[in-house]
């Protein structure tokens, strides 16, 4: 079912965790809330789940109003028909896998036969059919998360909320379960909100990514859009763009590197008070490979060998370093201390404001403060 969040604000005392947030999620869509720790992802989820009472706003799922501050509607959490999976393995260790998944159905007084059928179907869905009779404490972390997932899915929830469900797993398992989750989400057509601080996980799992900073959504779009066209340098930085250089405007197609005496030719950009040039390490080539780009001379500071590739740190002006990727087919000829000539294609540079312009200051005084001051 569709989810509609309107003007949602949640304050914990003076601390504004969610700030006037709007979010529309389509039927069967998977939206990932992505952002640094503390930006308000879990708080937003908990409001949808009914585990927090928002300060203001409205939350609707399908035709059902779950919360509306203006009319006083606030449906209790257990009556929202929402499936939830969290980071911690919220399963009962003294029960078997079967009993764990059957539990919510028994609470609903489903018949024995119906319960058995639905539990076994769901266990098959998450790849645990052979583990039905095993004690839940005898499972690996990945299997425990599958049980938690099955227990949510068995209730045929109208929507699913997943809050960093993979972050306690080791890298390999995380990878595998990530793929399985995406498949399950698509197969069941589940409308879901997935929270993570891991950009790779977000890119892999999302139909759309909602980037959050300071309790707000600062950009929303498909993984391609967010990765290809971040709206600000701080978003680009979070998405792993290796080079965020402090620059000053010269004219509409040139910027000057702060603290250096050379300019870069760049695509047309919008003026802002603080500008940064965002450049991916893989887009910096050698001058031999691309003689028509911005040519920069620098000194190799370090070379980090990664097997298939290597990352070089090159000083291009006093105190200004850039990260350059070299691969087997495109090595950066030059060891530590040597001079190299680099080339950056005009189109590989994005000149961006440091932050999205409409971002309010971090600590807006709250009513509580105003009252104290009065
Ligand atoms: N129970 C709480 N009481 C007070 N402040 C909280 C509580 N939970 C979260 N916060 C604060 O709200 C902000 C958002 O937190 P949270 O939603 O958990 O962020 P995220 O999930 O993105 O890491 C943070 O500043 C955090 O310290
Ligand atoms: Mg969180």
From TrEMBL:
KW ATP-binding (keyword) present:
yes
User: Which Pfam families is this protein grouped with?
Assistant: ABC_tran, TOBE_2
Record-linked PROSITE patterns: ABC_TRANSPORTER_1, ABC_TRANSPORTER_2
Query: What class does this enzyme belong to in the EC scheme?
Result: translocase
Its GO CC terms? ATP-binding cassette (ABC) transporter complex
**Per the UniProt entry, what species is this protein from, by scientific name?**
Agrococcus jenensis
Q: Which InterPro entries match?
A: AAA+_ATPase (IPR003593), ABC_SmlMolc_Importer (IPR050093), ABC_transporter-like_ATP-bd (IPR003439), ABC_transporter-like_CS (IPR017871), Mo/tungstate-bd_C_term_dom (IPR008995), P-loop_NTPase (IPR027417), Transp-assoc_OB_typ2 (IPR013611)
* SUPFAM superfamilies registered for this protein in UniProt: MOP-like, P-loop containing nucleoside triphosphate hydrolases
Q: Which UniProt keywords apply?
A: ATP-binding, Nucleotide-binding, Transport
Q: What is this protein called?
A: ABC-type quaternary amine transporter
Q: Where is the ABC transporter domain?
A: 3-239
Keyword Mitochondrion on entry? no
* GO terms of molecular function: ABC-type quaternary ammonium compound transporting activity; ATP binding; ATP hydrolysis activity
User: Which EC number applies?
Assistant: 7.6.2.9
